[in-house]
Structure formats: structure tokens, C-alpha cells
């Protein structure tokens, strides 16, 4: 059985205190209420890094330079109606102040506390990579 592959880029923004930013999916969106790493769909012909720079500007109002994005790992997860492939990048430097621009709630969380926040199934396997990194 084949499923449509959806490409999404995600970012673990890490602040000076070693906390990771997570965003809560707003009401009305699929998987509303779950927490996830910021990011979004990769447009046709777009590289993941370019997509992430665009999404972080739209969602959080910050400017990220491509050289500040370090690939960490990826998620590959089969949902009932599509297959998600999601590279996860780490970013420790950006310009601007992080603010919610799309009605999502934001929270800075210690990596060891990430499991206390319900996440989509594709995001959960990414957590151990962040706890060993920090």
C-alpha cells in the first residue's frame, strides 16, 4: 500500500539556558492541542532549510540564517492518510524575539521535560536525540 509522502521541516530552537521551544497546535488544525517543534511543509522545489527559514519568520517572527541550521535527525512516520518525512534541525542563533504569530501557544522546555507534553506520533522519537544533545 502506498501513501502520499508529505515533507515537513522542523526546528529545535535552543535558547541560552538550553531549553527547547515547542508550539501547541491551535484549535481547528489537525492534531489540535498537541505540542510540536516549529516548522512546516516544504513547498515544491524548496530546500528544507529555505522552507524552515520561511516558516520560522511566518510563525515566530524571527530571522534565521541557513548556516545556523544544523541537521540533527529525521522522523519517518506513517499516519492513516499520509506518510510524514520530517528532517529536524537545531538552531541556537537567530535575530528577533520569538513570538506566536499564528494563534499557537509557545513554551520553552528543558529537553528532559519534553515527554510531559503530548506530541504527534512523528515527533516523539525525536526527543531522545535532543536529550542526548543537551
Q: Helical proportion?
A: 10-25%
Using DSSP, what is the number of strands? 7
Termini distance? 39 Å
Oligomeric composition of the shown chains:
single chain
Major β-sheet, in short?
4 strands, mixed
Judged by helices, strands and strand pairing, the structural class is alpha+beta
Low-confidence region ranges: none
What does the overall shape look like? Answer: globular
Quote the beta fraction.
25-35%
Give me the side-by-side strand order of the main sheet.
4-1-6-5
Mean pLDDT: 95
What is the CA-based Rg, rounded? 14 Å
The total of helices stands at 2
Walkthrough of the structure:
There is one protein chain. The protein has helices at residues 48-60, 127-133; strands at 5-13, 20-24, 35-36, 39-41, 70-78, 83-91, 105-109. It is an alpha+beta fold.
